[in-house]
């Protein structure tokens, strides 16, 4: 047990911060990290609902996995409702995943240059996948002109 004199002497000793070697320059980000944290929780809940609806519609309802083919996807995406649902799922999944990876990069990349290049690669991948996925959802032609009639959905006039 420490005496009062020992406690006072210990309180006067300078305490070395072991994290000084890893100290980064401070930036003011306002409430961005708080909003990012709240977004991760909210988007996670919404994604769970969307994913289970997606799995139920695609695998449980109807004939199961054997029914998933070009005609199934074409019939589903012929409806603007399913286009929007899949688009929201794509955007939320990409934003959620990118935000999570951004947090990991910030936590584990110690050098500023490495952190910058990792974030550039991350944001580039985010933009490419999100833009291409959005284009596929909205430019998908369920009734292509050169497709065999047996592969086309029933609503196509071939």
Automatic annotation (TrEMBL):
Q: Which GO terms describe its molecular function?
A: electron transfer activity; heme binding; metal ion binding
Keywords linked to the UniProt accession:
Cell inner membrane, Cell membrane, Electron transport, Heme, Iron, Membrane, Metal-binding, Transmembrane, Transmembrane helix, Transport, Tricarboxylic acid cycle
| Record's subcellular location | Cell inner membrane
Question: Which cofactors, by name?
Answer: heme
Q: Name one GO biological process term.
A: cytochrome complex assembly
Identify the Gene3D superfamilies for this entry: Fumarate reductase/succinate dehydrogenase, transmembrane subunit
Quote the pathway field.
Answer: Carbohydrate metabolism; tricarboxylic acid cycle
Annotated membrane topology: Multi-pass membrane protein
Q: Which domain of life is it from?
A: Bacteria
Spell out the GO cellular component terms annotated for this protein, sorted alphabetically and separated by semicolons.
Answer: plasma membrane
Q: In the record, which residues are listed under signal peptide?
A: none
Q: Which residues cross the membrane?
A: 34-57, 77-95, 116-140
Any one Pfam family here would be Sdh_cyt
Q: Tell me which InterPro entries the record gives.
A: SQR/QFR_C/D (IPR034804), Succ_DH_anchor (IPR014312), SuccDH_FuR_B_TM-su (IPR000701)
Job of this protein: Membrane-anchoring subunit of succinate dehydrogenase (SDH).
Q: What is the protein name for this chain? A: Succinate dehydrogenase hydrophobic membrane anchor subunit
